[in-house]
Amino acid sequence: MSEHIVHTAILEDSFHIGVGLPKIPESFREVMRDFENFSRLGCITVSGDQFSFRLLEEYKPLWPRRDELLKAKLAFVLGWISHRACDREMKPIWREPKMKGRGSDVDPNLSPTECSVYHEGVMYNRYYAVDPTFRLAIFPEELACLDGIERIDLDRAALFIQQAFGASYMNIQTLSDTDGMQTFFEEMCMRAQKFYVDLRRYTRSAGSPDPELTAEYVTDINWIDNHDEIVNLAVRLRGGETPSPAEYENALAAEPASHYGKALRLSLSYILTAAEYFERDDMGIAELKERLDIGKKGPGGLAV
Questions:
Q1: Are 101 and 186 in contact (CB under 8 A)?
Q2: 176-181 contact pairs (CB < 8 A, 24+)
Q3: What is the pLDDT of residues 15-74, one digit of tens each?
Q4: How confident is the model at residue 24, as a pLDDT?
Q5: Sequence spans of domains, the chain
Q6: Half-sphere exposure of 106 (CA within 13 A, CB side)
Q7: How far apart are the C-alpha atoms of 45 and 7, rounded to whole Å?
Q8: Is the peptide bond before 97 cis (omega within 30 degrees of 0)?
Q9: What is the CA radius of gyration of the chain?
Q10: What percentage of the chain carries pLDDT values higher than 70?
Q11: Non-local CB neighbours of 120 within 8 Å, separated by 6+ positions
């Protein structure tokens, strides 16, 4: 869940706008139209600065003979570079304040900050409140209302997962099986990733946000603003409007003021860079890495 919703929103808005940008070649627009679902997996994948540019280098000579599998692979990588664009804008503000984590060996610095949790709540309410995939993640108690839920034996499912993980990871086998399933899974996740995500925090940020925290983390820092042309265009597209080509170009050219607008614009610039790399024979990997900000520090000199 951590930062999942914001990354997904940035990716989707990037693709929706990218499809209408005349400067993006039709082959890329086809990928964004047809493989958006698959690209969502890329936009929640980390370490894009280490692998995404290498995959673009591998796919470039294959692109003239592309098949459906290669298109899907490119969609994943475009999602991956969108993730990194989002991180470069958001990570500096998501790092504070630190929230204490859970589990016996968790590093509190690796748990989501309250700031990032509130941004997830904002985007959930803007875009995904009626999407059952996200709603059931934010409000898991509603799973009990799903058709056929009575046929699922949750105790047996939990026992199977417990045993499967125990057989796969020796250090998980040392976990006590007498402390209850909830404790077992919390500790198991700590050993697998050392990162704890408490869904109740997301439920509160989406369902009953604290006005003072909303002001501190959203309003006061201008985190998202419909007055940004690029944000406004994204909202219009989600509402089913059909803007003119000039409106797409103008929205991309205008300098956004909000953090979300800046992240969205950077995501589109990365996608445009990837498209140009595929189109230009004289554009090498060094220029691609430079324009994708590979190896560069983020705002404030922070590693992103």
A1: no
A2: 181/155
A3: 999 999 999 999 999 999 999 999 999 998 887 788 899 999 999 999 999 999 999 999
A4: 96
A5: 4-145+152-301
A6: 20
A7: 10
A8: yes
A9: 21
A10: 84
A11: 1, 3, 4, 5, 6, 202, 205, 206
